[in-house]
Design goal:
The protein has 11 helices and 10 strands. By secondary structure, the protein is an alpha+beta fold.
Length: 394
């Protein structure tokens, strides 16, 4: 692929950056990244404000076909995500805009597209993902929550867990077992459901520090219209694989790392130890340079995913490779940053906390990305099986 941007793309990129730079000025002090929008009401309101601003410009529908209100292409989506990641701006629902919408465009009926795409584009409806279960995480095909069809509706029973922001979601999408007698991977259906439906109970799962961005969701005879399926009945696994590709490119996270690296470099230039700036230490310089090189490689992988999506050529392998690389890079970066910051880098709220204490939280959280969106062990299997054609060892 050609990594050079056209003049039109450069202009759009600049506009994305200009708008996000202005929105950054309204960011509440408690906003420390994606998960905090589910933990703090001011952060949630800020998220909704940004969503409305982006919706006015049509940016929540970038890459969609014009008949559904779309504009631009997948590269515009990447450039927009770059700007948001660099300035740390929410407002783009990761579940509704980034994952579900492109999946609906490829796999949903016309009726479903017309009903659910416009509210997503207007930033009016927030979504959550209902996949993992207590005994079905990485091996999602082993799920046990059921959706029994009766007449023109499904009746759902069971439990989902580790559902990010389920307590804030207006709607949810998930997979449920609809044919217990069928073979694995051909027994589940992808269903959309209103999270206010009677029979749904949502319970937060608190971290040790008290924050609770994740939830567990219980379904007790939850009635959902049968028309709310995506793809074919019992063939939800194909839709899951389709959606996973849109979930895993990671450009937003990559750009947030690039901004964090810039801030860390400034810290090293302005902080002295033993009478010399940290930036003069050849070991620190070398380790920062290594992270910078790896970040550029991760950005190139994300660009490639967007290019393949534009040409409808993306396979599971490319998305898996990108996710695997940027998530493990995030871990290495977090370890390096806290190592450079020293003991005070582990202080959360104090005048002694370097860089506003952001790395104390990031150090604890960066491992999450190696688990979410499918564990990295699963990504390696996908690369081996679907990308390299290696045999499955039973």
């Amino acid at each position: 692929m050609d990594l050079a941007l056209t003049e039109e793309q450069k202009a759009r990129k600049q506009e994305f950056y200009d708008v996000c730079k202005e929105l950054e000025k309204k960011k509440p002090p408690s906003y420390l990244g994606f998960e905090t929008i589910y933990e703090d009401e001011k952060c949630w309101e800020y998220n909704l404000h940004c969503a409305k601003e982006f919706a006015k410009k049509g940016w929540l529908a970038l890459g969609w076909p014009p008949e559904y209100g779309g504009k631009g292409d997948m590269m515009d989506r990447v450039l927009f995500a770059e700007a948001r990641g660099y300035y740390g701006i929410p407002g783009v629902d990761i579940f509704g805009v980034q994952m579900l919408a492109p999946t609906l465009l490829q796999a949903a009926s016309e009726e479903v597209k017309k009903e659910f795409l416009p509210p997503i584009a207007r930033g009016e409806v927030m979504w959550c993902e209902l996949w993992s279960e207590p005994n079905a995480g990485s091996d999602l095909a082993s799920l046990s929550a059921t959706a029994t069809k009766k007449g023109d509706e499904y009746i759902i029973n069971g439990q989902k867990t580790w559902n990010t922001g389920a307590h804030k979601g207006d709607w949810g999408f998930g997979v449920f077992k609809t044919d217990p007698a069928a073979k694995k991977h051909h027994n589940m259906t992808f269903i959309l459901l209103d999270m206010k439906t009677p029979g749904i109970t949502i319970r937060p799962i608190p971290y040790l520090d008290g924050h609770a961005p994740y939830c567990e969701v219980y379904f007790d005879d939850v009635h959902v219209p049968a028309k709310n399926i995506v793809g074919q009945e019992h063939e939800g696994w194909a839709v899951v694989n389709l959606l996973a590709g849109f979930e895993r490119s990671g450009i937003n996270e990559i750009m947030s790392y690039i901004r964090a690296l810039e801030d860390l470099v400034k810290f090293c230039n302005n902080t002295k130890r033993h009478g010399q700036p940290l930036a003069k230490d050849p070991l620190i310089r070398n380790r920062l340079a290594q992270v910078a090189c790896e970040l550029e490689a991760a950005r190139a992988l994300a660009y490639r995913v967007a290019d393949l999506q534009n040409r409808n050529e993306m396979s599971l392998m490319e998305a898996a490779a990108g996710k695997l690389f940027f998530s493990e890079l995030g871990e290495r970066f977090a370890f390096l940053a806290t190592d450079i910051l020293g003991p005070y880098g582990q202080v959360k709220t104090s005048r002694w906390s370097p860089l506003d204490g952001i790395w104390e939280r990031l150090f604890h959280e960066h491992f999450i990305t190696t688990i979410s969106m499918g564990t990295n062990e699963i990504q390696r299997n996908i690369i081996a099986w679907y990308g390299l054609g290696l045999p499955r060892i039973r």
